[in-house]
Amino acid sequence: MASSLRLEDPSVFAGQWQATLTARSDAPEAQALQDKPSNICLIDLESNQTLGKGADCLSAWLQDSAIGWFPDPDGLSITGKEGSRIQFFSRQRDGLYLSTLKSGLMITLERAAKQP
């Protein structure tokens, strides 16, 4: 089945993404109404497959240094210092990826709206 999945070009992912940290019990609608800036990070996926602005915020959630990223046929991987995967985000739909941490908390990664 994996052979039917297409590996996206890294340029498809480059740009700004919004990462949101939620508990399983938080409905997305309820989370959007909560004023918890520490639960939201804006992260830049650079075209050279490194993480730019927001990497520190994501690193704190992952409890590991998030340095880079690469596309997978069925998602997106975040890499650490040695270039190995430290977290995998599964594709839910175009522009929306989801990962569950060991703690049970979930991170959604959604492409940020293009700035005019």
TrEMBL record:
Cross-referenced Pfam families: Inh
Domain of life according to the entry: Bacteria
Ranges where the Alkaline proteinase inhibitor/ Outer membrane lipoprotein Omp19 domain occurs: 13-111
MF annotations from Gene Ontology: endopeptidase inhibitor activity
Keywords attached to this entry: Metalloenzyme inhibitor, Metalloprotease inhibitor, Protease inhibitor, Signal
Family: Belongs to the protease inhibitor I38 family.
Protein name, UniProt field: Alkaline proteinase inhibitor
